[in-house]
């Protein structure tokens, strides 16, 4: 963890060999599906990849302090990156799936707002605990001034810590991260649902309404699974803690975006091939 | 109109269940020491501080609660499919899930603590006997209320996801909300009571957790008593608000503007929470003021 002095260096930049291998895998997955089923299934895979990229990018906005944050040693929310992003994104997916029948746009917006609302409530309660339960004002350890409010932090950091609490920029980052996570998760769900609704009735030779619960369940399970895959990849990129969009680690996101695109393409291809073949 | 009132009523009940669930979840994880502050419990013997705190953090709270709530919901769903009464099915499903949690807690405590043998940290059999059952009891409350809430969402509000899938979604969200909100209070306020109130724990004090209670050595049961005063209720309010507002904005505003009403309501709610957060932040800066070199423990 970074509060113990380690961690934030190393592994910067993009590894050209790894990226090339990833892009080849991505192209193979896209190409395979284009050969198998060029219409709806292919377009859905593109949607799934975009959803995965949104999740991976969104995780970088979520301020996470891990164990040091729980001791007031570093700023952020006192839990793991994957956990929090998954919680917010899945709350969004819940809202998005509910609004699915009202149309594509409403469902996506509903999913995004669901994730954002979860993070807004959580971040507020985190600050309430820091301020009223522990008597600690918010102070960032990574920047001298809050880029949104202009608050200075140096004098508000208690001795021997890297800052504490949840500055306003981290709060806003958390909400944006929750929204992107909810949006990406809902997009993956809707795209897979479309494919399953199209292909499952033919596969089992039953009427469409009879197969709907299976399609919804299957799309939901795969959406949650792909959500976790992308959140974990982004968490490895962040390695431990991040304060939000102002944190220097935020600049690492291009690596995660490439990784998430490749992973989503392969996972999405498997999820779609299940019914297309 | 009647349908709308019914929906709002169900939202309120689901919100209330979620509040209890969040409070029980945080108290359970503090007694079992499963959240992020557990790294300090693990570290303490290596720094020479032998303790009697339970330690069962093999995975984080969100995946653990995702598993238990999915188990509870899945078993309840299976029992309902063979025509069990829903209430009985949810109770039985949650009870079986709690036994899985108990097995997990025992093996996690034994494994984690035994790994510290070279630092002379003993495994206390009486701690296993007394604490495991108490975490199981709290876990039952958390799982039962979460599964009951999911049941309401499926059967009364008509969410398309099947019950086990909703159990997974809300179990992970429950763990995320509880671990985010409750952990700092347990980590700093409970484990570092020897440190000044109103300041973060210096990095140099890592591992020096408070090990003695008012009478004798502290065990994890004291943690439940302490954190249920603030960390638990705050986690409950957090999870309750998330569930209630998510349902309320959908049921109340989905009729407007072809579904966009719920989205607009969500944006307004987010902005309101942002304003409250900014107020809290400014209040803290004004009231506590900046730290100076002389006044490290000023605001006690």
Automatic annotation (TrEMBL), chain A:
Cellular localisation: Cell membrane
Alphabetized Pfam families for the sequence: MtrD
UniProt catalytic activity: 5-methyl-5,6,7,8-tetrahydromethanopterin + coenzyme M + 2 Na(+)(in) = 5,6,7,8-tetrahydromethanopterin + methyl-coenzyme M + 2 Na(+)(out)
Lineage, opening ranks: Archaea, Methanobacteriati, Methanobacteriota, Stenosarchaea group, Methanomicrobia
Protein name (record): Tetrahydromethanopterin S-methyltransferase subunit D
Molecular-function annotations in GO: tetrahydromethanopterin S-methyltransferase activity
Family assignment from sequence similarity: Belongs to the MtrD family.
Summary of the function given for this chain in its UniProt record: Part of a complex that catalyzes the formation of methyl-coenzyme M and tetrahydromethanopterin from coenzyme M and methyl-tetrahydromethanopterin. This is an energy-conserving, sodium-ion translocating step.
GO CC terms in record: cytoplasm; plasma membrane; vesicle membrane
Membrane topology, record value: Multi-pass membrane protein
GO biological process: methanogenesis, from carbon dioxide; methylation; one-carbon metabolic process
Keywords from the UniProt entry: Cell membrane, Membrane, Methanogenesis, Methyltransferase, One-carbon metabolism, Transferase, Translocase, Transmembrane, Transmembrane helix
Description of how the protein assembles with itself and partners: The complex is composed of 8 subunits; MtrA, MtrB, MtrC, MtrD, MtrE, MtrF, MtrG and MtrH.
Chain ranges passing through the membrane: 17-36, 43-64, 76-99, 106-132, 168-190, 211-236, 256-276
Documented EC number(s): 7.2.1.4
From TrEMBL, chain B:
Membrane topology of this protein: Multi-pass membrane protein
Keywords: Cell membrane, Membrane, Methanogenesis, Methyltransferase, One-carbon metabolism, Transferase, Translocase, Transmembrane, Transmembrane helix
UniProt enzyme class: translocase
Any one GO CC term of the record: vesicle membrane
Record flagged with keyword Transferase: yes
EC number: 7.2.1.4
InterPro entries: MeTrfase_E
Record carries keyword Chaperone: no
Source organism, top-level taxon: Archaea
One GO MF term attached to the UniProt entry: tetrahydromethanopterin S-methyltransferase activity
Family to which this protein belongs: Belongs to the MtrE family.
Record protein name field: Tetrahydromethanopterin S-methyltransferase subunit E
Organism: Methanochimaera problematica
């Amino acid at each position: 963890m970074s509060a113990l002095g380690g961690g934030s260096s190393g592994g910067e930049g993009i590894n050209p060999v790894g990226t090339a291998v990833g892009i080849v895998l991505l192209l193979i997955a896209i190409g395979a599906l284009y050969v198998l089923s060029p219409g709806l299934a292919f377009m859905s895979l593109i949607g799934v990849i975009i959803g995965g990229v949104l999740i991976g990018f969104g995780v970088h906005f979520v301020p996470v302090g891990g164990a040091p944050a729980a001791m007031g040693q570093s700023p952020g929310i006192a839990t793991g990156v994957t956990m929090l992003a998954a919680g917010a994104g899945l709350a969004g997916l819940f809202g998005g799936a509910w609004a699915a029948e009202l149309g594509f746009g409403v469902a996506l917006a509903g999913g995004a707002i669901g994730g954002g609302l979860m993070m807004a409530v959580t971040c507020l309660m985190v600050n309430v605990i820091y301020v009223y339960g522990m008597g600690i004002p918010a102070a960032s350890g990574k920047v001298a001034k809050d880029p949104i409010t202009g608050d200075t932090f140096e004098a508000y950091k208690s001795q021997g810590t890297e800052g504490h609490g949840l500055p306003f920029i981290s709060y806003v980052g958390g909400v944006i991260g929750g929204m992107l996570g909810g949006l990406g998760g809902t997009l993956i769900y809707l795209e897979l649902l479309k494919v399953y609704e199209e292909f499952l009735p033919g596969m089992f030779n039953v009427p469409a309404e009879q197969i709907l619960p299976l399609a919804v369940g299957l799309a939901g399970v795969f959406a949650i699974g792909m959500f976790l895959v992308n959140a974990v990849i982004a968490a490895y990129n962040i390695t431990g803690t991040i304060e939000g969009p102002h944190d220097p680690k935020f600049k690492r996101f291009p690596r995660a975006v490439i990784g998430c695109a490749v992973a989503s393409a392969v996972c999405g291809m498997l999820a779609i091939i299940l019914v297309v073949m | 109109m009647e349908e709308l009132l019914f929906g709002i009523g169900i939202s309120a009940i689901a919100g209330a269940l979620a509040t209890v669930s969040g409070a029980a979840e945080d108290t359970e994880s503090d007694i079992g020491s499963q959240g992020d502050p557990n790294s300090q419990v693990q570290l303490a013997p290596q720094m020479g501080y032998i303790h009697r705190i339970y330690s069962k953090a093999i995975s984080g709270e969100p995946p653990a609660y995702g598993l238990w709530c999915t188990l509870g919901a899945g078993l309840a769903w299976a029992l309902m499919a063979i025509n069990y009464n829903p209430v009985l099915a949810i109770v039985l499903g949650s009870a079986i899930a709690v036994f899985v949690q108990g097995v997990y807690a025992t093996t996690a405590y034994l494994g984690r603590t035994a790994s510290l043998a070279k630092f002379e940290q003993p495994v206390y059999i009486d701690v296993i006997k007394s604490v495991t059952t108490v975490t199981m009891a709290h876990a039952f409350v958390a799982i039962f209320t979460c599964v009951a809430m999911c049941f309401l969402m499926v059967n009364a509000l008509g969410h398309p996801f099947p019950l086990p899938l909703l159990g997974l979604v809300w179990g992970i969200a429950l763990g995320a909300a509880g671990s985010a909100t409750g952990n700092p209070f347990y980590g700093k306020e409970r484990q570092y009571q020897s440190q000044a109130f109103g300041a973060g724990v210096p990095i140099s004090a890592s591992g020096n957790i408070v090990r003695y209670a008012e009478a004798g050595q502290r065990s994890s049961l004291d943690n439940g008593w302490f954190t249920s005063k603030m960390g638990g209720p705050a986690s409950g309010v957090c999870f309750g608000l998330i569930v209630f507002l998510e349902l309320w904005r959908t049921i109340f505003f989905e009729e407007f503007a072809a579904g966009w009403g719920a989205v607009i309501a969500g944006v307004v709610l987010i902005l309101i929470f942002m304003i409250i957060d900014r107020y809290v932040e400014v209040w803290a800066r004004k009231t506590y003021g900046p730290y100076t070199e002389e006044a490290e423990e000023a605001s006690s």
